[in-house]
Amino acid sequence: MTTIKLHNTRTRAKEDFVPISADNVRMYVCGPTVYDRAHLGNARPVVVFDVLYRLLRHVYGADQVTYVRNFTDVDDKINATALARQKAGADGTLEQLVQERSDETIGWYLHDMGALGALEPDEMPRATQYIAQMVAMIEDLIAKGHAYAAEGHVLFAVDSWKEHYGALSGRSVDDMIAGARVEVAPYKRNPMDFVLWKPSTDELPGWDSPWGRGRPGWHIECSAMSYELLGESFDIHGGGNDLMFPHHENEIAQSKCAHPHGEFARYWLHNEMLQVEGKKMSKSLGNFFTVHDLLEQGVPGEVIRFVFLQTHYRKPMDWTEKKAREAEATLRKWRALTAGIEPAASAAPAVVAALSDDLNTAGALAELHRLAADGDAASLLAGAQLLGLLSQEMGAWADTASVDLSSHADRLSDARASAMQSKDFSEVDRLKAAYLAAGLEVRMSKDGVELVPGTGFDAAKLEGV
Ligand SMILES: [Zn+2]
C-alpha cells in the first residue's frame, strides 16, 4: 500500500501517515462561517483538503474515508442580516430568518465549491444542529474543573491546562498574554480564558441553557461536532493557518480536557494563505473578490483549481490573471488530447507518489505535463482525474465539439474571396474582429482559413456573428 507522508503541525515534521483504523480514515476540516459569498481565499483549504480526501480514498478505498467539514451558522454577521430583514418586514422569527440566511449562503457555497471540482464531504454538520451536544460538553468541562460560569458566560479556564495550552502553535500562555490582543473582561479569571457560552439579548438568536438563554462561542462547535461524528480520537484535522491560534489551540484544550483518554486529532495540517497579484486580498486594496465573481467573469472553475494546485499548500499562493490564462491554455490542450479517450485503469505511480509526498500537487502537475508530452492520453486522464481535473462535468467550458468552427472558417474564406474582387474588406474585418472577440485565433493563409480556440474562447459569443 502507498505510504502517505504529511507535514504534521503538531510535531513540526513530515511523518508517515498511519491511520488509527485503515478501514475508517477520519478527517475533520474547519468549514466556513456562512454569512456571505466565499471569497477566493476561502476556497484554498477547500481545494487542498479535497485533494487529500481524493488521495485518501484512492489509497484506502472510497468507503473507508470519512470527511467532516462544518458550517458555522452561529455568527453576528448572519444575525445582523436576519435582523435587518426582520426590520424591513420579512416574515418569521429571528431564528427562522437566521436559518433562511444560512440556507441561502450554504447553497451558494456548495455551488461555488462544486464548480471548483470539490467533492462534498461525507458529513457537513451545522453548529445550530449541535447546540445540545455543545451544552453537554460545556457542563462536562465545568464538572471537571476546566470551565466556570460567570455573569451568564461560561469560560474555559486556561490555567487548568496551562502546561499544554499553546503547544500546537508553539507559544506559552505568558507569551500569549504579552503579545495577543485579548479581550479583558471583569468576569475572566485569566485574560486568556475564552468563551464557551455567552448570553443573548432579545435581538439575537439564543437557546436555553443552565446558564440562561444564550449561544455558544465559536470554538466549542468543532470540539462537539468532531466528537459526535468522529469520536474522541481521529486521524487528521485541517484548516487554514490563520486558524491555528486561537481556534485550533482552543479546540484541543476543550477536547482533551473533556475526553482526557482520547487523542483528539493525530495529524494537524494547515494551508498557507492566498494573495492576489502579489498583494494581500483586502477590501481596502480593491482586490477583494469572490469565487462567484470569477465564475461570472467566465473564469472556469477548473482553471481556478488548476492555478491553486500549482502551489504547494504550505506556501503562500499568488492568484494572477497570467496564471489563469496559462492554466486555461494547458487545460484546453489536455482536454483536446484526451477527448474520447478512456482513462487508464489507475493513476500513474509517479502522480500518486508526488501527491503522497505531503500533497506535492505541483510535482503531480509536472508529471501530468510529462505524460501529455509523451502523448500518453489515457494516463494523463487518469492522473488528472485523481487531482480533480479533466472530469466530464467540469468540461463544458472547453467544449468546442458543439460549435461548427469550420462553417465560420468557410464564411471568412468566402468573404475574403469576394473582397479580393470588390476591394471592399469591411466584411472580412468585421468577421475577424468578431472571431477574435470570441477568443478564437484566426489563421489566414493562401491555403485557406483556420479558426483555433484560444484562451478565453467563448462559443456563446459566436451567436449572431
Ligand atoms: Zn474548527
TrEMBL record:
The UniProt record gives the binding positions of Zn(2+) as 30, 222, 247, 251
Keywords (alphabetical) are: Aminoacyl-tRNA synthetase, ATP-binding, Cytoplasm, Ligase, Metal-binding, Nucleotide-binding, Protein biosynthesis, Zinc
| Pfam families reported for this sequence | tRNA-synt_1e (PF01406)
Annotated ATP binding sites: 283
Keyword Ion transport set for record: no
Per its UniProt record, what CDD domains does this chain match? CysRS_core
Where on this chain is 'HIGH' region (motif)? 32-42
Which GO biological process categories is it annotated with? cysteinyl-tRNA aminoacylation
The protein's annotated catalytic reaction(s) are: tRNA(Cys) + L-cysteine + ATP = L-cysteinyl-tRNA(Cys) + AMP + diphosphate
The organism's superkingdom is given as Bacteria
Q: What is its main location?
A: cytoplasm
Query: Which stretch carries the motif 'KMSKS' region?
Result: 280-284
EC annotation from Swiss-Prot or TrEMBL:
6.1.1.16
How is the co-factor bound, per the entry?
Binds 1 zinc ion per subunit.
> Which GO terms of the molecular function aspect are on file?
ATP binding; cysteine-tRNA ligase activity; zinc ion binding
Domain Cysteinyl-tRNA synthetase class Ia DALR: residue ranges: 350-398
Q: Where in the cell is it found?
A: Cytoplasm
- What are its cofactors? Zn(2+)
An example of a Gene Ontology cellular component annotation for this protein is: cytosol
Record keyword Protein biosynthesis present: yes
Would you tell me the protein name for this molecule? Cysteine--tRNA ligase
Organism for this UniProt entry? Ruegeria atlantica
This protein's encoding gene = cysS
